[in-house]
Amino acid sequence: MAVNESAEDYLETILILSHKLPVVRSVDIATEMGFKKSSVSIAMKNLREKKHIVVSDAGYITLTKTGKEIADMIYERHETFRKWLIKLGVDEHIAAQDACKMEHVISKESFEAIKKNIKVE
Predict the structure, then answer these.
(1) CA distance 58 to 72
(2) Do residue 17 and residue 59 come from a single domain?
(3) Are both 35 and 85 inside the same structural domain?
(4) Where do runs of H (alpha helix) occur along the chain?
């Protein structure tokens, strides 16, 4: 289930948008991430080929089971690190940026150990 950082960011963005919008389209992802629609189209093709998303004839993007598992994992890491850093006194904007970096590089084992030992609610 290993994917690169860029793919993880796209999957996480699709997950977040799916909670905000009735349907997710490439243009929504491009707007949210600040990327060109052509770049998003290439990424969606790659995610589709890896079976992490399904794109309907109308252009609606849906996460597959594996895509959702990856997106959920990355989103959980992001939110855990973001909240933890804010609780430690880090500025919210910086905490969000740092959480975005940390979510991709930490091992599952280390993340689980950290999660057991911090309180972030």
Answers:
(1) 25
(2) yes
(3) no
(4) 5-20, 26-33, 37-49, 65-87, 92-105, 108-117
Instruction: Write down the pTM of the prediction.
Output: 0.90
Q: Is 50 exposed, middle or buried (CB count within 10 Å of its CB: 0-12, 13-18, 19+)?
A: middle
Q: Measure the CA dihedral 7/8/14/18, to 10°.
A: 160
Determine whether 62 is exposed, middle or buried from the number of CB atoms within 10 Å of its CB (0-12, 13-18, 19+).
Answer: middle
- pLDDT, tens digit (0-9, with 9 covering 90-100), for 54-83: 999 999 999 999 999 999 999 999 999 999
Q: How many separate domains does the chain show? A: 2
CATH of the domain at 106: 1.10.60.10
Tokens 């600040």 locate to 34
Query: Strands 61-63, 53-55: parallel, antiparallel or unpaired by DSSP?
Result: antiparallel
- Mapped onto helix, strand or coil, the DSSP state of residue 89 is coil
